């Protein structure tokens, strides 16, 4: 069985590739070059996307004893991840670029190319498990990445290998050291790779420009101004600059058409019904009737008991108890215990009692 190991330059993907090779698979390592101008992305060896990471991946492949290549995916990454990130913020939504990268780059573009070249599967260092063809949470819940992989289809999962889901991150690092992999102590990557300085608002301003607009309360009273609605996300409290005379306020909604940010008290953030678009059912057939399960609404966010089903091509989620800070553009991922049932991109969220829409 021929396996293409996606090697980011971090410890997880290196150990995953080593395990696949040790299991007897015919493994080839590949690193994805995601920027035409690497200096414009984050620098330093951080476990993903930099020149230093490419070198670390090559050294790991040499230690493992597998062929290694670099694939130029810069054009696809810019189109599917960076431009999508900008356009989503421009539309008043809050995207998850890592989720989109997994969907469009690592398990669409890469898998398509790998199959065309005769590979049977793509192996990655994600902390998830595959059991009987279904995606399950990692045993290390603190590192679980099932949320950002829940956008994958059954067909994509059928060609995926995740060797690390049965161990903790500490065990992965210890194994890397035993194998003589120099990335054993390499820090994890957390930041958005294409925003080198970590200043998301500044990055968006450079792409979208500065456009002043009003900050209003729920009644429409103007409380202040902003330099671009794209700099805000639902649930945000810091950076509103409303002055001490205004009680603590949170972003309730972002309206790009009139460039207005609406703020209000934390209680106004509470929602209990979510509508998601483009549902993907990887762990079960589409739910045609309300089904008791749980839903996760942000990466590393808490899990909420709910009832969920598909209606007219959309995912409907009714929470047992209200949640706050639910932003359009994020993913709603359904679980039955630790098994991923499916996911959808959040389009809107409301309080059934108030019938308002703080996530739109």
From TrEMBL:
<dbReference type="InterPro" id="IPR046885">
    <property type="entry name" value="MnmA-like_C"/>
</dbReference>
<keyword id="KW-0694">RNA-binding</keyword>
<feature type="binding site">
    <location>
        <begin position="6"/>
        <end position="13"/>
    </location>
    <ligand>
        <name>ATP</name>
    </ligand>
</feature>
<dbReference type="GO" id="GO:0005737">
    <property type="term" value="C:cytoplasm"/>
</dbReference>
<dbReference type="InterPro" id="IPR023382">
    <property type="entry name" value="MnmA-like_central_sf"/>
</dbReference>
<dbReference type="InterPro" id="IPR014729">
    <property type="entry name" value="Rossmann-like_a/b/a_fold"/>
</dbReference>
<dbReference type="GO" id="GO:0103016">
    <property type="term" value="F:tRNA-uridine 2-sulfurtransferase activity"/>
</dbReference>
<comment type="function">
    <text>Catalyzes the 2-thiolation of uridine at the wobble position (U34) of tRNA, leading to the formation of s(2)U34.</text>
</comment>
<feature type="domain" description="tRNA-specific 2-thiouridylase MnmA-like central">
    <location>
        <begin position="203"/>
        <end position="264"/>
    </location>
</feature>
<dbReference type="GO" id="GO:0008168">
    <property type="term" value="F:methyltransferase activity"/>
</dbReference>
<dbReference type="GO" id="GO:0000049">
    <property type="term" value="F:tRNA binding"/>
</dbReference>
<dbReference type="GO" id="GO:0002143">
    <property type="term" value="P:tRNA wobble position uridine thiolation"/>
</dbReference>
<keyword id="KW-0963">Cytoplasm</keyword>
<comment type="similarity">
    <text>Belongs to the MnmA/TRMU family.</text>
</comment>
<dbReference type="Pfam" id="PF20259">
    <property type="entry name" value="tRNA_Me_trans_M"/>
</dbReference>
<dbReference type="InterPro" id="IPR004506">
    <property type="entry name" value="MnmA-like"/>
</dbReference>
<feature type="site" description="Interaction with tRNA">
    <location>
        <position position="330"/>
    </location>
</feature>
<keyword id="KW-0067">ATP-binding</keyword>
<feature type="active site" description="Nucleophile">
    <location>
        <position position="101"/>
    </location>
</feature>
<keyword id="KW-0808">Transferase</keyword>
<feature type="site" description="Interaction with tRNA">
    <location>
        <position position="126"/>
    </location>
</feature>
<keyword id="KW-0819">tRNA processing</keyword>
<dbReference type="InterPro" id="IPR046884">
    <property type="entry name" value="MnmA-like_central"/>
</dbReference>
<dbReference type="Pfam" id="PF20258">
    <property type="entry name" value="tRNA_Me_trans_C"/>
</dbReference>
<dbReference type="Pfam" id="PF03054">
    <property type="entry name" value="tRNA_Me_trans"/>
</dbReference>
<dbReference type="GO" id="GO:0005524">
    <property type="term" value="F:ATP binding"/>
</dbReference>
<feature type="binding site">
    <location>
        <position position="125"/>
    </location>
    <ligand>
        <name>ATP</name>
    </ligand>
</feature>
<feature type="active site" description="Cysteine persulfide intermediate">
    <location>
        <position position="193"/>
    </location>
</feature>
<keyword id="KW-0489">Methyltransferase</keyword>
<keyword id="KW-0547">Nucleotide-binding</keyword>
<keyword id="KW-1015">Disulfide bond</keyword>
<dbReference type="GO" id="GO:0032259">
    <property type="term" value="P:methylation"/>
</dbReference>
<protein>
    <recommendedName>
        <fullName>tRNA-specific 2-thiouridylase MnmA</fullName>
        <ecNumber>2.8.1.13</ecNumber>
    </recommendedName>
</protein>
<feature type="region of interest" description="Interaction with tRNA">
    <location>
        <begin position="143"/>
        <end position="145"/>
    </location>
</feature>
<feature type="domain" description="tRNA-specific 2-thiouridylase MnmA-like C-terminal">
    <location>
        <begin position="272"/>
        <end position="346"/>
    </location>
</feature>
<keyword id="KW-0820">tRNA-binding</keyword>
<feature type="binding site">
    <location>
        <position position="32"/>
    </location>
    <ligand>
        <name>ATP</name>
    </ligand>
</feature>
């Amino acid at each position: 069985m021929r396996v293409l190991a996606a090697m980011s330059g971090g410890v997880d993907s290196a150990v995953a590739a080593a395990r696949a090779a040790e299991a007897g698979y015919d493994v080839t390592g590949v690193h994805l070059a995601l920027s035409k101008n690497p200096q414009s992305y984050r620098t330093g060896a951080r476990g993903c996307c930099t020149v230093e990471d490419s070198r670390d991946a090559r050294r790991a492949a040499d230690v493992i004893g597998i062929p290694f290549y670099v694939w130029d995916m810069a054009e696809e990454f810019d189109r599917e991840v960076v431009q999508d990130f900008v356009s989503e913020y421009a539309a008043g939504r809050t995207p998850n670029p890592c989720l989109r990268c997994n969907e469009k780059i690592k398990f669409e573009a890469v898998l398509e190319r790998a199959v065309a070249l005769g590979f049977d599967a793509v192996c990655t260092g994600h902390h998830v498990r595959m059991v009987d063809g279904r995606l399950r949470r990692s045993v290390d819940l603190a590192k679980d990445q099932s949320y950002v992989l829940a956008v994958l289809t059954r067909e994509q999962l059928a060609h995926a290998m995740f060797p690390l889901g049965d161990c903790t991150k500490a065990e992965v690092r210890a194994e890397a050291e035993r194998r003589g992999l120099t990335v054993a102590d390499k820090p994890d990557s957390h930041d958005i790779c294409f925003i080198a300085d970590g200043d998301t608002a500044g990055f968006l301003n450079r792409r979208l420009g500065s456009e002043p607009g009003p900050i209003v309360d729920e009644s429409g009273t103007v409380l202040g101004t902003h330099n671009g609605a794209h700099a805000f996300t639902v649930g945000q409290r810091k950076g509103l600059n409303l002055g001490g005379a205004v009680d603590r306020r949170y972003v309730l909604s972002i309206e790009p058409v009139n460039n207005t940010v609406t703020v209000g008290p934390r209680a106004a953030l509470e929602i209990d019904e979510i509508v998601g678009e483009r549902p993907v059912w990887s762990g079960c057939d589409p739910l045609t009737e309300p089904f008791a399960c749980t839903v996760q609404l942000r990466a590393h966010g808490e899990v909420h008991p709910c009832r969920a089903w598909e209606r007219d091509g959309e995912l409907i989620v009714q929470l047992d108890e209200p949640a706050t800070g639910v932003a359009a553009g994020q993913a709603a991922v359904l679980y039955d215990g630790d098994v991923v049932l499916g996911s959808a991109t959040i389009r809107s969220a409301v309080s059934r009692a108030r019938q308002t829409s703080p996530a739109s």
